[in-house]
Amino acid sequence: MKTQYSYGENKSNGDIDICGTNVFVCPAFVDVHVHLREPGYSYKETIFSGTRAAAAGGYACICPMPNLDPVPDTPEHLERELELIRRDACIDVRPYASITIGRKGKEVVDVAALKEKVVAFSDDGSGVQDEQVMRRAMETIAAEGCILAAHCEDNSLLHGGYIHDGRYAREHGHRGISSESEWRQIERDLRLAEETGCAYHVCHVSTKESVEVIRRAKERGVDVSCETAPHYLLLTEDDLQEDGRFKMNPPLRGAEDREALIEGIKDGTIDMIATDHAPHSPEEKSGGLRDSAMGIVGLETAFPLLYTGLVRSGVISLDRLVELMGSAPRKRFRLGDTADDTAVFDLGTPYVIDSGSFLSKGRSTPFDGWTVYGRCLETRHKGKTIYKCDI
């Protein structure tokens, strides 16, 4: 699908006039990796708050992961989530079902019974440790013509780590998460995907080795796509502070990893950018790097951060950013037309990210206080204004 957008002209957008050379109108974005926390953990986020945060970031379609209570591993459990979506969502919400029952990595779900109501299958938050279970999952999902989206993490290589196993961890006495714990399981899964013909998607790629093994697999013709997130493209372990705002999984890696990720989005190895929006309560994020919950929010800051950090700096084009955040995930996950979903941004006026103004219930972001360009002015879904900036 060709990206259509307008820039630097006066545009009529329904009931408002959008004027000025700094205004940018484009198809609204898609995020295939978010956590809306409901049902089960509504103190962190709800369908209501999460979808409104997404709209404030220019998104009209998001895909929530299945680490919920109950886990959407049966039609009955999935219906609990779908009821909330129908009641409270202001944008298109396409949930994942889990790969295994309870996300426990042992028994593959009934894919045929779930596939019509989900975007794909994932055990996100947990890597499937047993190779034979993953093989059965890929065979089943391939037979049903669906996508398997994998959180890749080899638990045997974690050793209690919670930040990147690099310079900062050594100098500050923290336990590190090795890069191998990510890329080694990606390597295994790519071999299985090649053998089974499964459409395979790698979640939140963070290491240079991961980029390279995915690049080689694509060259061999494996049906693989992957995503990375804004924080891995803009930050490294050199930016870490002793604050839970800097703790997520995968962790912030080294400078060479960031450079490889940027090269991956430039050469097409990395197909899309997702936020991995993962809200937690203030208490859960108050334990510093060692004891805070893993995860940061990102829906309301992704475009301005990436536009400021990658487009204004000349790393990638604006057209490429729109593709990474919109048309590419929409095409890969078969999410339909964007004709009536639009977003409007002010590219010329700087502003300061203030987590206190977020519509999300989550407030934890390492980008609090950053000056950025690209504030979302309005988002429309199915032709209806669902968000309008009041500043």
Quick description:
By secondary structure, the protein is of the alpha/beta class.
Write structural notes for this entry:
The structure is a single chain. This protein has 391 residues and is of the alpha/beta class. Helices cover 32% and strands 17% of the residues. It contains 12 helices and 18 strands. The strands form 6 sheets. It has a 5-stranded antiparallel beta sheet, with helices on one face. Helix 4 packs across helix 6 (180-196), helix 6 (180-196) runs parallel beside helix 7 (208-220) and helix 7 (208-220) packs parallel to helix 9. The chain is globular and about 55 Å long. Mean pLDDT is 95; it is low at 1-5 and 7-17.
Helix-strand category: alpha/beta
- Overall pLDDT, averaged? 95
In total, how many beta strands? Answer: 18
Put simply, the count of helices is 12
Largest sheet: 5 strands, antiparallel
Primary descriptors:
391 residues, alpha/beta, four-stranded parallel β-sheet, disordered N terminus
Topology overview:
Layout (H helix, E strand, L loop, with lengths): L5 E2 L3 E3 L2 E3 L4 E5 L1 E6 L12 H10 L2 E6 L10 H14 L3 E2 L17 H4 L16 H13 L3 E4 L12 E2 L2 H6 L3 E2 L2 H17 L2 E4 L5 H13 L3 E5 L1 H5 L20 H13 L4 E2 L14 H4 L10 H10 L6 H15 L9 E5 L4 E2 L18 E2 L2 E7 L2 E5 L3
Parallel strand pairs: 5-6, 6-7, 8-11, 9-10, 11-12, 12-13
Antiparallel strand pairs: 1-4, 2-3, 4-14, 14-17, 15-16, 17-18
Helix pairs in contact: 4-6, 6-7, 7-9
